[in-house]
Amino acid sequence: MSARTTYRLGAGLAAIGLLVIPTACTGNAGSSGGGGDTLYVGTVNPPASFNPINQSDVGGQFAVRFAMDTLLDQPEPLKFVPKLAESIESKDNKTFTVKLHAGAKWSDGQPITAKDVVYTINLIANRESLTTLGGNVTALTGVDATGKLPKGQTAVPGLTAPDDTTVVFTTKTPVDPNYVKEMIGTKVVIMPEHTLAKTAPAQIDDSKFAQLPDVTSGPYKFTKYTQNASIEYAANPDYYGGAPKIAKLIMKIMPASNLAGELQTGSIMMNSGGGIGNIPFQDLKTVQGFKDVNTKVNPTIGFQTIQFNVKTFADPRMRAGLAHAINRKQIVDELLLGNGEVIDGPYTSQSPFLDKSLKTFSYDPALAKKLLTEAGWDFSRKINFVVPTGNKIRERSADILLQNFKAIGLNVVQTNYDFPTTLAKARAKDHDMVLMGLTFNIDPDVSNMYSSTGSFNLTGYNSPESDKLLLAGKSEAKTDARHKIYNQLQALWQADMPVLTLYSDHAVAATSKSVAVGGATPFWPGTVANVGQWAFEGAN
């Protein structure tokens, strides 16, 4: 789903450019097994940011999770396992108690304590702090709909650290415990107070720490970032979960078209999956034929969208017309070779909250032109269509979209940018339409995208009814009642159509047989849940 909120995307990475040093890779690294080897992982999208609390791109989130831990992890949908926290419990679904792992330490030897958790949540809620995690803490007492505290206030009411291993916080109303465990437990990366406390919240995003964290909590430590080329890690021997079994890890950033070849030569041992390292389906049969590689194709919770600027297309009929103009089945059949699904809205078939009774928008060029005409669209008006590079299938889908739009007489002009630039333009609403891949959560709250104050609202969508239902859904503790609310929301979003989901593409997980433990999992957000246990064949 990304670097800054609505401000200066990518300035930090420009500074990282000074660290660029070419990285040599040997094709057989890791093949002999043993704890001293290096694991190479192939990925496509470079991280837009290394700031653990200010990321909205999957590439950045994936990169950080090797080195920085959350309170919990989620290896499978709604299955939560300990990370920095041994548990998050509540007797009334309103006051929650976090019990931390007593032996956890930062990579500099300092203990990880409840004060670090309190500091991190307060930092996210601070009005001066740049973060993409505001939506994750909006249920807490004392913060507004964006997850921010009132001006001048720096501490979330009710958020306390009674002792070094206990954190207590309260929510405005009773909430689903799984919501808290996922949105706060598995999504909020804990920051080191002793390293950052003297830095003003407004300056964290530009700090040395945010460029490449040098005090970390995870199984690996960052050692070097070569911009747009590689991210290097070294094992943290003092990791509270046990020393990693693989000493070094290098994430190689490359075009998707290179992944199959690098797997074949052994230059990489696995792909990162999850939309940021997916092997093109045109190469799937080839990769499946590699005798030394295990390959699986898994459905995902991620999806690709076309986001409409609602200021440009002010009438919902215009957006509906654009939706009817798009042949999404052609994209799934021709580009994904059937390895995907067409859906409307932010929930795929992997979500228990998908309303399967809703019919998806049909491909109907005549109806598309009729709706646009009735809404008063000027067909001579130029439409600025922004497409990010890096994901070849998404780039090729843009070709089909252009054909579809031109077929009904629209004047669409496409411009391509790298992902960080695309995201910056999308946040600034410097587009009429933009392609964007997203991966949210199993929990159905998607306020980040659909709320009028959402940190990832790239369309300008502002619906009081949607805002009201989103708040109700987030505040409802009963699962059955939540289903009804999100069914209403799906119908509303389909009628308003600020965002059209183009398709959800399945993910190819290819892992060398030299790797006994590790690789992308069927539930991709849980891929790195056990990264410290990844091991080569024959490792002790």
Automatic annotation (TrEMBL):
Q: Which UniProt keywords apply?
A: Signal
Query: Is Signal among the key words of this record?
Result: yes
According to the UniProt entry, where is the signal peptide? Answer: 1-29
A Gene Ontology biological process annotation? peptide transport
Q: Which residues form the Solute-binding protein family domain?
A: 79-456
Which cellular component appears as one GO term in the record?
periplasmic space
Lineage: superkingdom: Bacteria
Single Gene Ontology MF annotation: peptide transmembrane transporter activity
Residues annotated as coiled-coil are none
Q: Which named protein is this?
A: Oligopeptide-binding protein AppA
Q: Which organism is it from?
A: Kribbella sindirgiensis
